[in-house]
Amino acid sequence: xxxxNNGFVRNLVSLVLVLLGHTSAFQVNNRKAVTSASxxxxxxxxxxxxxxxxxxxxDPEKEGPAAGYGIIGSLYRAGxxxxxxxxxxxxxxxxxxxxxxxxxxxxxxxxxxxMDAYLENPQDWAYQKMCxxxxxxxxxxxxxxxxxxxxxxxxxxxxxxxxxxxYDLVTGVAEGRYGKADGTDLLxxxxx
Length: 192
Prior knowledge:
Elements: H1 2-21, H2 36-43, E1 47-49, E2 54-56, H3 60-63, H4 71-78, H5 80-88, H6 90-104, H7 108-120, H8 122-135, H9 149-175
Antiparallel strand pairs: 1-2
Helix pairs in contact: 4-5, 5-6, 5-7, 6-7, 7-8
């Protein structure tokens, strides 16, 4: 009877281990699931040319600058900082977008939204990405950030108020409206 119990117990333990090994609830799974959309995105990802140390789009129509949004889109989504970067460092901005597309397997608009958010506030962007990865926080949609029609109207009106205020300030200082009444102005060193 002891031989039966030992063989039976051994077979039972082996069966349980085999079943647990094939059950995904008890396995550590570090592999990310690859969907057909992400597999397609990865096959169409920009490529790195080691000779020129630059990223190039595989399909310029779908991955090039024309596939994304323009400078005004960056202004609405993330403010003036990414716009300044796009104007003064267009090649660096383009390389950052292509690299993000290749590494994350995303489309052009999503990569641009993430780069604009990064340029606007790198610490907050990095913290959000860490929370998404480690804590399971919902993924923030930087591609459509601040693109609600109501938000676009409010941002445009606010920008108009700021432009009018600074225009009046600059022209008023230049004309002497905000200087002393004796004919001197702020541009000639008369602050008080």
